[in-house]
Amino acid sequence: MKVIVNDVVAALEQLAPVAYQESYDNVGLLVGNKNQEVSGILISLDCTEEVVQAAINQKNNVIICHHPIIFKGLKRITGANYVERVVVMAIKNDIAIIACHTNLDNMQAGVNAKIAEKLELQNCKILVPGKNTIRKFCTYVPQHYAEKVREGLFEVGAGQIGLYRNCSFNTEGVGTFQPLIGSNPMVGNAGGSEENIDEVKVEVIYHKHLESNIIKKLNSFTYYEEKAYEIYEITNINQSIGAGMIGTFNIPMPPSEFLKKVKKVFQTGCIRYTSLERDIQKVALCGGSGSFLLADAISQKADAFISADFKYHEFFDADDQIMITDIGHYESEQYTSEIFYDYLREKFTNFAIQINSGNTNPINYF
Ligand SMILES: [Zn+2]
Fold this sequence. Notes:
By secondary structure, the protein is of the alpha/beta class. The protein folds into three domains: 5-103 and 335-355, 3-Layer(aba) Sandwich (Udp-n-acetylmuramoylalanyl-d-glutamate--2,6- Diaminopimelate Ligase, Chain: A, domain 1), CATH 3.40.1390.30; 111-128 and 242-327, Udp-n-acetylmuramoylalanyl-d-glutamate--2,6- Diaminopimelate Ligase, Chain: A, domain 1, CATH 3.40.1390; 134-236, Alpha-Beta Plaits (2-Layer Sandwich), CATH 3.30.70. The chain contains twelve helices and 15 strands. A six-stranded mixed beta sheet has the order 5-10-12-13-14-11. The protein has a five-stranded mixed beta sheet with strand order 1-4-3-2-15, sandwiched between helices. It has a four-stranded antiparallel beta sheet with strand order 7-8-6-9, with helices on one face. α1 (5-15) crosses α12. The protein is globular. Bound molecules: zinc ion (ZN). Residues 67, 288, 329, 333 line the site of zinc ion.
């Protein structure tokens, strides 16, 4: 079966919906034609000229990377810097580039779950669960149609709460309407008198990225010409989407042993850390630049916080309460490629999917 670039984009949307990228981010198809047939996929943390060359050599015409090559926008494309050269090279060689960045960071089974898995942390949960990502949908349906509508809403993913699906609340009541001239009412006549109809108010909650599918589904039903529905923003915390992760080791370990383990797992040439006078068992973490989560890690009594890109003064904020463990940005996110690989290999079987074998880390340690 022919697979086009847009099929890959759609598959990634299921893994990490674009709706959950941070406001500053730029994810999705950044370069290329969405209708082009896919010959193969190369996965990389970063998209450099070497990575594009590797894709060309391996006859992979799609590159999926975690960090968006076009981030702040491009005003001209003259090849003056590596970003422009990568874009030119990709376009010249019909290579599509897709980025999946903070939307994957914010997923429960995303970047941070992979880090936790590598460290063999247990009982992991999101460090700072997302807010304003859950909404409520209410619609008013003729009684004999309610089951069909409920099922339709469930089908597109509404009504999922943790490990429970098909959750809804249903109230019976009477709806009224008066069809005006030009309308095509289910009961009564256009220009006729007011009608009463036995209805059910169906209420479901949903994750915000499902909204357009839910409305599309509702409009696919033919019971009313005009569907009545309401959407509510709710402030419930979303336990399955958010920043960072926190988990525990089965057995506490002295700081030196912890550092040794981290160094081995992430093969890092340098760990910058703050000292701590107690054993490490509870660990918070965030792939990439995660210093903004330090206060949350401390307030949840983590013994260590593994992340990257800490500034000098931020290390003071550890304040003998936590071991800041800065392992480097590339090192912390290097296993992200495995998430794409494992996920896409299940979805697509008729072309090669490869992880870039080169190291794109621009930082060396002397
Ligand atoms: Zn990153």
